[in-house]
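Re: the 152-residue chain
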Amino acid sequence: MKTPGELNDDALSDFIGKSHAKMRSPEVSVEGVLERVQRFNDLHGALTARPIGPALIYHELATGNLSFRLVEQRMVVGRQSASCALAFPSATEMSRTHFEITAEQGLHVLRDLESRNGTFLNDSKESIAEPVVLNAGDIIFAGGVLFAFTGE
């Protein structure tokens, strides 16, 4: 899988166009998409090892910790380590079970699990209310942690 930073100009233009077309908010500009691509590139480029397969890169803003976890059939993310595949016990803004990503018919679906502070996708100012299909390069913000979905 090529990251957006490794794409040639035509492929990057296609990536930006597809990303812009799927934005849920009409006020999102091409500049906003470019900022999201840059954020993804920054996170992906800062990893010491690169994921192979769909993964969730995460950056804990309070601690600066940067890592990734491969996404399998179901990944619950939250504060409670007993019930989450990816837990952030010190993230006070994160709910015990905040959101999940599930693999369904070749797609990865993001769902907020009725978190108290919401799950935000691609700089949206509104928390997701319904399940959303993730695409490579999508940025998720939840509970003081920034996530980037790598896709396949």
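The chain has one domain: 4-149.
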